[in-house]
Amino acid sequence: MLSSLSIRNFVLIDSQDAELLPGLVAITGETGSGKSIILSALSCLLGAKAEKGAIRSGESSAEITGLFITKREEVLSFLREHEIEEDGEIILRRIIKENGRSSLFLNGVQLGKKEQEELSPLLSDFSSQNSHLSLMREDYQRRLLDRASSTLDMLSDYQKAYDEYIQLKDEIESLKAKSERERESLDYAEFCLNELDSANLTLTEDQELEREIRLISESEFLSAAVRSAVESLDDALSKASTSFSSLLKAEKKDESLSILIERLESLQIEGEDIKESLSEYLRGISFSEWELEEKNERLSQLQKIKRKYGGSIEKAIEKREAFREEIGLSSNIEERIASLEKRRDEKKSEAETLSEEISKKRKTGAASLSKRITENLRMLGMESALFNIEVEKGETLTRNGSDKIRYLISPNRGEKTNEIQNIASGGELSRIMLSIKAALDIEGEVETLIFDEIDAGLGGKAANNVAQMLKKLSENHQVIVITHLAQIASKADQHLVVSKREENGRTLSSLRSVEGKEREIEIARLLSGDESTLSIEHAKSLLEV
Predict the structure, then answer these.
(1) CA distances (Å), 156 to each of 87, 148, 160, 522, 523, in order?
(2) What is the pLDDT of residues 122-168, one digit of tens each?
(3) For the chain, which domains are there?
(4) Phi, psi of 388 (to 5 degrees)
(5) Strands, sheet with 102-106, edge to edge from the N-terminal-most edge strand
(6) DSSP class per residue in 113-172
(7) Mean pLDDT rounded to a whole number for the chain
(8) Cβ atoms < 10 Å from Cβ of 526
(9) Residue 535 burial (CB < 10 Å; 0-12/13-18/19+)?
(10) How many CB atoms lie within 10 A of CB 516?
(11) How far is the C-alpha of 532 from the C-alpha of 1, rounded, in Å?
């Protein structure tokens, strides 16, 4: 609620401080006394553009400060979100410069235009002909209907499903875009992996091939040399055999030769083994031209692989495994997309089911609320008004369901209904807001409601009904009303009077709280324009009711 208001150098006000109480606060005053100045000051404080001439003549700037006391979670969340100190008190300070520029500070922190637009509807509903009214906003209209239809809990469940559906949808689109971007790279990886897999690489194959090709190229020389060695060794072994036979004969005469015989025998055995190994080498060294060509082609293939994939067989094998992993990850993306699409469809189906149920309840609630608002409007002097809340089912899901909600009114009999912002006047908008608030009597909504022109053209029973509604509404809200009606002013918990005077050749407006005799006089003035005994008695009777 607005706890205090301070105005400096604003139009006809030089310096004004006012404490405001909870409940119903009535502001009255004679025509031209400055009630509109108080309204303009409140409007500027809450973010409206200051009109030309807002600064008092002779001054360089104007300043309006308001102290709000609140425990409303939406307001506290705003403070936390913008990292502004919170202790349940909000000090708004608007400074208007003579160059037309102005600044708005919240607890000492300057707010930008966007932040001002967010904060203002959290602090007050400002109902006047020239003010921005929250009732015009689709989100506000929808929230009022949801409260009347008891769909807020269901809407919360729907929004959880919808938010998850949107999150899954966005994630799928992101993964698909990523997959599409990587498609060309993936095609190349698949080509390379196929090439490397087909090559059947082993770590030392290139070295073995080079050795084998070298041997094939030198096979004729090697064959001749080894064959000569075999022939010479064969001749040597034949002679060694003769020597062995001779020594056996000699041993019969000298047994000491047995050691040498054993060594010669070992030499023969080793020689035979070497001869057999050389003969086997000769058999293996006879390669064909076809085999040489085949080995050269394989080595050429390996050299190409090495040049393309890192310079060595080892690097090529590492590349092969890297390509295999990349392709595997891509396969995982496709599996992930398929899994997410299944969950997305489930959440969409859940959201659609909840949206249908919400829509049905909204239509039922809209019919009931429209009837109550129409009755209230007729009590407030709009006898021919017809109010209707239209709920039209849309095809697209949004975070608040799929319904298009419109508040329609026909102020006069025979007129076509249209959206309230298109045809309702300032006074009618104020009465519509009052009718809605009275029909819902919402506790926990915006704490301060400001009404102007609500009593335009009213009197008698309608005026009494307006007063009763405002009084009832003030049980859950601070209601500030600028009025010309004694019926409304007499119901106020606080009565403020705007007056105008001349001082040192200058005109000044001021605001003061009235009680007792002063209040009786002001109520009497509202009743008949004078302070006659009859008017005073009538005023007393109103105050006593």
Answers:
(1) 28, 15, 6, 49, 48
(2) 888 776 654 445 677 788 889 889 988 989 889 999 999 999 999 99
(3) 1-129+425-513 (3.40.50.300), 183-330 (no CATH), 516-545 (no CATH)
(4) -145, 130
(5) 13-19, 2-10, 61-69, 89-97, 102-106, 109-111
(6) HHHHHHHHHHHEEEESTTS--GGGSHHHHHHHHHHHHT-HHHHHHHHHHHHHHHHHHHHH
(7) 86
(8) 23
(9) buried
(10) 8
(11) 37
Residue 303 half-sphere exposure toward CB, CA atoms < 13 A? 8
Q: Are 96 and 67 in contact (CB under 8 A)?
A: no
The contacts of residue 349 (CB under 8 Å, 6+ apart) are none
Residue 451: Cβ-neighbour burial (10 angstroms; 0-12, 13-18, 19+): buried
pTM: 0.63
Q: Are 119 and 47 in contact (CB under 8 A)?
A: yes
Q: Which two tokens stand for residue 343?
A: 């969950």
The residue among 391, 395, 421, 394 whose CA lies nearest residue 405 is 391
Chain centroid, CA 457 distance in Å: 47
Task: Identify the three-state secondary structure at position 415.
Answer: coil
DSSP 3-state of 366: helix
pLDDT digits 0-9 by tens, 156-209: 999 999 999 999 999 998 888 877 766 666 777 778 888 888 888 888 888 888
| 16-25, 201-210, 445-454: the lowest-pLDDT one | 445-454
Tens of pLDDT along 282-301? Answer: 877 766 667 777 888 888 88
| Cβ pair 525, 490 in contact under 8 A | no
φ, ψ for residue 51 (rounded to 5)? -75, 160
User: What are the tokens at 466?
Assistant: 């307006």
Q: Over the stretch 52-77, which tens digit does the pLDDT of each residue have?
A: 788 998 888 999 999 999 888 888 88
Q: What is the pLDDT of residue 132?
A: 42
Lookup: tokens for 425:
């006047």
> Per the structure block, which two tokens stand in for 480?
């500030």
The distance in angstroms from the start CA to the end CA of the chain is 26
What does the pLDDT look like over 368-399, one tens digit per residue?
999 999 998 888 888 888 999 999 988 899 99
Contacts 24+ apart (CB under 8 A), 139-147: 139/400, 141/389, 141/405, 141/406, 141/407, 142/400, 142/403, 142/405, 144/369, 144/436, 144/440, 144/442, 145/362, 145/365, 145/366, 145/369, 145/389, 145/391, 145/405, 146/362, 146/365, 147/440, 147/442
**CA distances in angstroms from 204 to 32, 296, 302, listed in the order given:** 104, 16, 11
